[in-house]
Amino acid sequence: MKQGILLDVPPMGASKASQITAFKKEHRILTHRSNACHECRWMAVKVPPRRLDNNGPIEGMSLFDMAANFCRLLDEGGWTGYGTGELSAIRDLCKTRGIPCEL
């Protein structure tokens, strides 16, 4: 009778996609994919704690509204990151903002 080989298989953890989603939620990061630019297809934006023009709340504002209203301020303030993929854009943003990123 043959005996099988026992392997030490680590338990399945959370998928990479769910880790990214949880990280984005924890750090208030929104991402957007664009077909317009090949070098920086993805943009990640850390939602500021308040509006950059001090004119009302930022809660509920979409990424498009933030970009349309505060594009220059977001870029100059280091609230954005860019990359060829979603993860690289998040890592770029984290590097700029000094957020520890273990993704």
Can you describe what's shown?
This protein has one domain (22-97). The protein has helices at residues 16-26, 63-76, 86-97, and strands at 29-33, 42-46, 80-83. β1 (29-33) and β2 form a beta hairpin. The protein is α+β, with helices and mostly antiparallel strands and 103 residues long. The chain has a three-stranded antiparallel sheet with strand order 1-2-3.
Itemize the secondary structure elements and their pairings:
Blueprint: H1 16-26, E1 29-33, E2 42-46, H2 63-76, E3 80-83, H3 86-97
Antiparallel strand pairs: 1-2, 2-3
Q: Please identify the structural class as seen in this structure.
A: alpha+beta
Overall shape: it is elongated
The helix/strand series, from N terminus to C terminus, equals HEEHEH
Strand content: 5-15%
Which blocks of ≥5 consecutive residues have pLDDT under 50?
A: none
> Average pLDDT across residues?
81
Strand order of the largest sheet: 1-2-3
- Main β sheet profile: 3 strands, antiparallel
Oligomer: single chain
Number of DSSP E strands: 3
Query: How many separate helices?
Result: 3
N-C termini distance: 45 Å
Structural Rg: 19 Å
How many domains comprise the coordinates? 1
Helix content: 25-40%
In short, what is this structure?
The chain has 103 residues and is an alpha+beta fold.
List keywords for this structure.
14% strand; elongated; 103 residues; alpha+beta; 36% helix
